[in-house]
Amino acid sequence: SSYRDELRRGMAFGEFSVHYQPVCNLVNGQLAGVEALMRWQRSDGSWVRPDIFIAAAEAEGMIVQLTRHLLQLIAKDCASWKVPAGFHIGINVAADHLQHEDFVKDIRGFSQNIAHLLPTITLELTERSLISEGDLVAHRLAELRSEGIRVAIDDFGTGHCSLTYLQTFPLDYLKIDKSFVNAIESADGETPILDTIIQLAHRLALQVVAEGIETPLQMEYLKNHGVVFIQGFYYARPLSSAALMVWIEQNP
Ligand code: G
Ligand code: G
Ligand code: G
Ligand code: NA
Ligand code: MN
């Protein structure tokens, strides 16, 4: 199809780039790592929204190629990074890639390419991406986890899955979707669904990352409820690789 050709051309002409959104550790107030978010700027200067081109790549059977391209772009960016050992790099992984025969190989290759940073790579998986081939995927994730890769469940609470995958898949982090953070109205009030998700995560010994924090009040609320990691415009927007390095120097 033509969208497939557009994606191929975009990759060939270097139209894709990666933005990195900082994640804050509320316990020590320091930068814990980043989530990699893909961007596409066409040759005419216009930007294609990531939700549009990611969905199109999935529909057109191109998401594996596009994610491999992303991993290459990140590795290139990382060549000039100065970050502490253990720095987290979150990668969004789609269902097709998890089920692809070369998935483990692709992640290992990426890990080797950025090994000089001694990073902690975290694979961000949505509930939707875990619906099919559960046994196969669980086995692969277990294998990668034994090699130091971490696994996060992303956009938690927004998918169509039941809670069964919380006991089926080996997980390290639960990322609370921004719609739940949005529901916070005061620092000392109650937000029943959000509070229950946080308790569930703690009971399962999962680390919690809350997404979409836009106000100091939301940050305060989450801190008071034992959430360790936050991500959102209030702390930092997604930044280009160069902007991230400047941001790190200015926010020690
Ligand atoms: O980055 P926002 O900044 O607009 O991203 C929109 C959506 O696109 C999010 O749901 C995000 O998870 C998804 N997304 C961004 N980059 C990637 C990527 O590299 N791979 C996948 N699978 N999804 C991505
Ligand atoms: O990176 P951020 O989540 O703020 O981007 C919001 C939207 O703006 C993205 O979904 C993307 O389509 C577009 N975008 C991303 N980076 C840039 C940029 O550097 N310049 C412009 N004009 N648009 C961008
Ligand atoms: O992978 P995921 O779907 O969680 O992607 C994160 C999305 O959330 C990206 O589109 C990113 O640009 C966006 N985002 C990050 N921080 C904020 C925020 O504080 N507010 C809003 N509205 N969106 C955010
Ligand atoms: Na994500
Ligand atoms: Mn998310």
TrEMBL record:
Domain (EAL): residue spans on this chain: 1-252
Signal peptide start and end residues: none
Subcellular location: Cell membrane
Protein name: cyclic-guanylate-specific phosphodiesterase
